[in-house]
Design goal:
Blueprint: E1 13-16, E2 19-22, H1 30-33, E3 52-53, E4 59-60, H2 70-94, H3 102-125, H4 131-155, H5 160-180, H6 188-215, H7 225-255, H8 262-290
Antiparallel strand pairs: 1-2, 3-4
Helix pairs in contact: 2-4, 2-8, 3-4, 4-8, 5-7, 5-8, 6-7, 7-8
Length: about 290
């Protein structure tokens, strides 16, 4: 399954003057106030004929109907997440996880996760978002999550899936409120910190996985016991920070008049992040329950 959000390697974020961040238009007084977006940045959708600006170059709400809107993002995100949920429910019901079928269930889950990973990479590097590929990715991720959730609920922590869902919803709501009230401000420094933490965490988990595969057990022990709890919390915090980047991407895409197809890209990014958070929540619940 995806260990990072691939969306930020595409539209919206780039490197400018040695810093990574969203290409926001400069605003009046930005330099004086230390706005990190004030150094020669430009509208990333400047070639989009539907993007509108005022006399100072600040983005205005587009009047055209074929541009990105918050309603469109919500609808497409609901479709993508709905596909994940339906596929997870179907896998939970159709794939038995009793002792006789546990090995097969693990095999199907791993296969679905690998296919989801490949599809996420394909979606990341396509020049234009493909709704069919995004929904297919969501379906395979749903199969993976459904089987893993059933296994955890059956053998480790009954009710773990519901706890993970509630935890994911709480993180989403908390980050959204913090972002809308200004408690979280997405700047170049914030973006750079989050991406560095995400890459570092992913590399560390890959090393742990290699040790587990070739050395047996839990590798370096980062995903079990007390260390597992610490790293699980770190993973969820990183996911929450990536959610803030998702919200910034959506906000700026709407402000700059991004084409409507970018709604699918935003939905894909949000889905990848929420899948990450749910899986880490599920793992954390399993570790805490296993330690009882």
């Amino acid at each position: 399954m995806r260990s990072s959000n691939p969306v930020f390697s595409r539209r919206g974020f780039s490197r400018d003057n040695g810093h990574a961040g969203f290409n926001a238009a400069p605003q009046a007084g930005a330099t004086a106030t230390g706005n990190p977006y004030a150094q020669g940045t430009a509208n990333p959708y400047a070639t989009n004929p539907y993007a509108q600006t005022d006399l100072h170059g600040a983005p205005q709400a587009p009047a055209r109907s074929d541009v990105m809107t918050i309603d469109g993002v919500v609808m497409r995100t609901a479709m993508t997440l709905g596909t994940v949920i339906v596929a997870a429910a179907a896998a939970w019901w159709a794939m038995p996880v009793d002792q006789a079928n546990l090995g097969t269930a693990y095999g199907v889950a791993i296969g679905a996760a690998l296919i989801g990973l490949v599809l996420s990479l394909v979606n990341s590097f396509k020049r234009r978002p493909s709704p069919a590929l995004i929904l297919t990715y969501a379906a395979f991720e749903g199969v993976f999550l459904g089987i893993v959730s059933n296994i955890v609920g059956t053998y480790i922590a009954p009710g773990a899936a519901m706890q993970a869902v509630l935890g994911t919803m709480a993180v989403f709501a908390g980050v959204l409120i913090a972002y809308r009230t200004g408690l979280i401000r997405v700047t170049r420094r914030f973006y750079g910190f989050v991406m560095a933490a995400l890459i570092g965490f992913t590399l560390l988990m890959m090393v742990n996985l290699l040790f587990a595969v070739f050395g047996g057990g839990d590798g370096l022990g980062f995903r079990s016991g007390a260390l597992g709890v610490v790293f699980g919390i770190v993973a969820i915090v990183i996911g929450a920070c990536v959610l803030a980047l998702n919200f910034k991407q959506v906000e700026d895409g709407i402000a700059y008049g991004a084409p409507r197809e970018e709604e699918w890209l935003a939905a894909f990014g949000l889905t990848v992040t929420l899948v990450w958070i749910y899986f880490e929540m599920l793992r954390l619940v399993a570790i805490l329950s296993g330690d009882d």
